[in-house]
């Protein structure tokens, strides 16, 4: 029993060791998102409501593009387990090209959505605030797409520290820029919500520049850099990356689509509801990003074991990852339950908004276990390169079931914004069960 326990402890340690830098980087993203929301919320409730809508819409694009970048991770992980550094360089070159092209395509879609912004049923007085913020966030997405691809490369070779440092540095810069450009501090223009968007754009461009410089000058990346420079992007390589990237992107995109469509539904209820939705969404992101970080590290380790053909280690790693992710979800739920009201007060002093947001804490906690399960096993399936079934299950869980449930719970059943949150539990639990069953079938 002792030997078995020691063997299992190894997987917990590996996932935690690889995942901790990812987690710290993601915490930086979460804290920045929270500070963004707090600064905008203190500027005005209208700015907070406008940010809620635009950020929720762009969250869909962000997650879709992030998911597309994840396709390179199992490829890099498998090559890394075999010591094939040149092939990693070629794969990264291919992935970077594909990710930029995919980001441009998504940008065109978002531009079309912008044209129809006034047809989405949002409060008319918010549109002048939404439009300029929307455009600057759209421009900022392209450098972020490239950063995502480079980060999957460094994470895939288990060097998760560089991505963490760059994310944290970019987030600090973003916070400083917010203070200067939202409020017009130290002689800078007072641009309000638009200033928050400009700060995000500048931070993302500088993050990309720093990432490229680090990879070019640091000696540990030279073997991969040679493969990147000398390697030729072939159709076969592009097809291999796309076969993994596209289904992951669609799975994550369909999951996020529930929350984006829900934002539109909440907007029909009024600006206060939209502001409250943003407050809880930012708080909820804390829990999601924490256990998604460990899901990403679990996927990296599973890819390494799968590349070496060690099925039993894949199973043990998946079980350890699921326990860690469930524990993270429960810890996040407890924190929100105990400190939620105090955190909300930091974002806004609008009593109406706080009252609505408080009503969402319990529904938010309800869907955490389902969310944790689907995160764990979606990443486990990604690690063994089984991604097409994930896309199929995501379509049935999130699109066919989730979006209609969101509308029905909110309006015909009269649940309003609470009904919106309760509907999330339905789709996420169904997805989690389907992903889990498929994973254990694949490794049987």
Structural overview:
This protein has 444 residues and is an all-alpha fold. Helices cover 87% and strands 0% of the residues. The protein is built from 16 helices and no strands. It is globular. The mean pLDDT is 86.
Tally of separate helices = 16
Describe the biggest sheet?
Answer: none
- Quaternary status of these chains? single chain
| Structural class based on helices, strands and sheet pairing | mainly alpha
Residues in β-strands, percent: under 5%
Strands, count: 0
Residue-averaged pLDDT, rounded?
Answer: 86
The coarse overall form would be: globular
Outline the low-pLDDT stretches.
none
- CA-CA gap between termini: 23 Å
The arrangement of helices and strands along the chain is HHHHHHHHHHHHHHHH
Radius of gyration: 21 Å
Helix content: over 70%
What topology emerges from the helices and strands here?
Blueprint: H1 2-43, H2 45-69, H3 72-82, H4 85-115, H5 127-156, H6 161-183, H7 193-217, H8 222-230, H9 235-269, H10 271-307, H11 311-347, H12 351-358, H13 361-366, H14 368-383, H15 388-410, H16 416-442
In short:
This protein has 444 residues and is an all-alpha fold.
């Amino acid at each position: 029993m002792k030997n078995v326990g020691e063997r299992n402890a190894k997987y917990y340690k590996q996932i935690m060791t690889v995942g901790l830098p990812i987690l710290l980087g993601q915490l930086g993203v979460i804290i920045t998102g929270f500070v963004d929301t707090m600064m905008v919320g203190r500027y005005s409730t209208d700015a907070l409501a406008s940010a809620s809508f635009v950020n929720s819409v762009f969250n869909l694009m962000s997650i879709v593009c992030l998911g597309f970048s994840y396709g390179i991770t199992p490829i890099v992980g498998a090559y890394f387990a075999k010591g094939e550094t040149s092939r990693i360089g070629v794969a990264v070159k291919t992935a970077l090209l594909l990710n930029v092209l995919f980001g441009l395509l998504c940008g065109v879609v978002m531009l079309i959505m912008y044209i129809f912004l006034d047809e989405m049923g949002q409060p008319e007085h918010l549109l002048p605030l939404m439009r300029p913020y929307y455009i600057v966030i759209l421009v900022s997405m392209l450098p972020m797409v490239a950063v995502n691809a480079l980060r999957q490369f460094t994470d895939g070779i288990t060097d998760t520290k560089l991505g963490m440092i760059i994310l944290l540095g970019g987030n600090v810069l973003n916070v400083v820029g917010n203070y200067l450009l939202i409020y017009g501090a130290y002689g800078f223009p007072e641009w309000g919500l638009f200033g928050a968007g400009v700060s995000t754009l500048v931070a993302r461009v500088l993050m990309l520049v720093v990432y490229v410089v680090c990879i070019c000058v640091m000696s540990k990346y030279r073997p991969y850099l040679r493969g990147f420079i000398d390697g030729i992007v072939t159709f076969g390589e592009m097809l291999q990356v796309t076969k993994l990237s596209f289904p992951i992107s669609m799975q994550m995109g369909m999951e996020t689509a529930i929350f984006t469509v829900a934002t539109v539904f909440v907007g029909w209820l009024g600006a206060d509801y939209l502001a409250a939705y943003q407050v809880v969404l930012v708080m909820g992101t804390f829990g999601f990003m924490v256990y998604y970080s460990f899901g990403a590290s679990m996927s990296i380790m599973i890819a390494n074991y799968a590349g070496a053909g060690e099925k039993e280690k894949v199973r043990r790693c998946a079980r350890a990852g699921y326990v860690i992710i469930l524990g993270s979800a429960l810890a996040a739920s407890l924190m929100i339950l105990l400190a939620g009201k105090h955190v909300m007060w930091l974002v806004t002093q609008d009593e109406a908004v706080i009252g609505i947001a408080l009503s969402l804490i319990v529904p938010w906690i309800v869907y955490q276990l389902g969310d944790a399960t689907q995160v764990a096993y979606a990443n486990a399936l990604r690690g063994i390169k089984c991604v097409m079934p994930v896309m199929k299950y995501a379509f049935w869980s999130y699109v066919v079931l989730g979006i209609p449930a969101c509308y029905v719970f909110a309006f015909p059943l009269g649940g309003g914004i609470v009904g919106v949150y309760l509907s999330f539990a339905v789709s996420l639990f169904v997805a989690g069960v389907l992903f889990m069953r498929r994973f254990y079938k694949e490794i049987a």
